[in-house]
Amino acid sequence: MVIAVATNQTQYLSLENLIAILGRSIALGITAIGQTFVILVASIDLSVASLISATSVLASVIMDGAPAMIVPAVLACLLLGAFVGVLNGLIVSALKVNPLIATLGMSLIIQGCLSAFVSNFAGSVPEAFQIFAYGQIGGVPVALVFLVLLALLAWGILRFTKFGSDIYAAGGNDEAARFAGIKTGRIVVLTHVICSVCAAIAGLYLASRLRSGAPWIGADGVYDLESIAVVVIGGTVLAGGRGGIWGTMAGMLIFSLIDSAFNIAGVDSFAKQVLRGIIIVAAVAFYAIRSKRIVA
Amino acid sequence: MTDGADMQTARRLRLPQINPVWVLLAVLIGAIIFMNPGFTQPTGYMNFLKRAAPLAILAAGQVYVITSGGFDLSVGSLITLVVVGASMLTNNDPAATYWVVPLMLGMGLGVGLLNGLIVCFLRVPSLIATLGMMITLTGLAFMWSGGAPRGYLPDTFRFFGRELIRDVPLVRFIPISVIVLLVVVGLLAWLMHRTNLGRQVHAIGDNPVAAGLAGVPVNRVRITAFMLSGLSGAIAGILLGGFAGVSTDVGSGYELQAITAAVLGGAQLLGGRGSVPAAVGGALALTAIFTLLNFLGLPQPVRQVVQGLILIAAVALAMHRRQQTGT
Lengths: 296, 327
Description:
The complex is a heterodimer of chains A (296) and B (327).
Chain A: H1 2-11, H2 15-23, H3 26-40, H4 48-63, H5 70-93, H6 99-117, H7 127-134, E1 136-137, E2 140-141, H8 142-160, H9 162-172, H10 174-179, H11 184-210, H12 217-220, H13 223-233, H14 245-265, H15 269-288
Antiparallel strand pairs in A: 1-2
Chain B: H1 4-13, H2 20-35, H3 42-67, H4 75-90, H5 97-121, H6 126-145, H7 155-162, E1 164-168, E2 172-175, H8 176-193, H9 196-206, H10 208-213, H11 218-243, H12 254-264, H13 276-295, H14 300-325
Antiparallel strand pairs in B: 1-2
Helix pairs in contact in B: 2-13, 3-8, 3-9, 3-11, 3-12, 3-13, 4-5, 4-6, 4-11, 5-6, 5-11, 7-11, 9-11, 12-13, 12-14, 13-14
């Protein structure tokens, strides 16, 4: 069926087609916007995938088909995201734990807590909330409008606020930024909060799209690695301090184009996974190979 | 490891410095014996060692990569690929074991070589490179088996993981996997702590630029470290094939357990410090924790949570100690 849809699309190369392609990577885009922030301060977040699973389940369990529970569910998810972000940020900035390990450990904790409670589809999402994933405003999907607005907001924060310039300063040279009077610890915590809240929103979107919460949705989409790859392809440097939101959006576009190309070509799903791994490494290599720094 | 002479003199003045992982291990073993006195019997501790063997071997390989300043997250999926690949290749033919085992070891070395080449020459950070390798290898394992692995491994292949040498004086029996564990760990420990390669691994992890200027072939040493880790993954896969069944998730989670074990053993993330025996101690301690959780009747997901907490706490403690000592 997917192939049929895809072949249909090739016959109608148009704005509609582009929108359809984008629709598949909204969640990745939202996650990647958050990931851009943490990578800009030279941190990284590998816990987004399990957080996405956790929030998608939490949302659909709280809603449980009742439209009245939409607001509490959304608030609970955003709070969970903020809480995880604060924890990540504090572990990284106050306990000085390597961010890779801190967020990998957090990912284990979240996934463990989640699978202690649910192992299958849980709860259900009311019609009203499915608008987030399926609704349209003048022919354009609501989710796409939301993604563009979120990207604009993120761009505005990075470009025009003091917080934004502090992020670049802390990421470029942590020590120099601290000597300049910037509270870099607080910046790191705040960027982690932004990243985790974005992941929580992505979880909400996926719950709305699947009409129910699935505890494997985040790990299945490899959102942790793919969001990092998207950010790096977009020209944001893993060492921090350089990059931006629009690059990330372009990276997301490239990824969704590759994805739809696979679908059109009818690549078997296991082979797709193999190709994905290779493409991610190749894409990062494409940018990293020019750097003279020794990496490990 | 550079101040060995200093430590010798200091040792006479103060109490001997013991790596905290051994204390932790002793406490955990004590707790296990308290809850299950049968553990002091050969059946108890030999089975424990047998179960810990794959993780301990993995940790011993992982510590090379960590000490050299990198991560190897591809070992878990490598285990899966080894088990699935072996079941496909042997095709229930016992005679096939003799060429499948060397082939699998070669595959481990090959994956390590590929990881090393990607990190050294394409300059991809090892975390991304090996995570990408993890996705790729898992996909390959699925492709190879068509999604549903069939058949089982012949007994000749399962020999390494399952068989015992009986009628041994003192301990009654020794599992083959424990012998494999002792040999592999002995070799890796010797290579790390008694040879030039080990010193070079420490040097490039501590400061790759300085090491390069001092004449260390940085790329070659780094690739060797990844190859040793890949080899340990293949060995662990062969052992696991012996006592776990054939499935596409035998290896999942092992990469993080290996890193946790190495970190528990005091290996310093991003390089410069690491010990093979201590990493093995970390692996035994982690297995002991899981055994305890089992005794307490806690479900599987709790293990993940505990492991995550241990991982973060171990690194946080190490950082705290380093800040206090100012090194």
